[in-house]
Amino acid sequence: MNFLAHLWLADRSATSLAGAVLGDVVRGSDLSAYPVAIAQGIRLHRRIDAWTDCHPQVVAARTGFVAGERRYAGIVIDLVCDYVLAGDWARHSAEAFDAFCRRAAAAVAAEAASFAAAGARAPDAGGFARLLQSYAQADGIDRAVARIGLRLRRPEGFLRAAEGWPALAQRLRPSVPKLLDELGVRVAQALAPDP
Question: Is this model's pTM higher than 0.90 or not?
Answer without folding.
Answer: yes
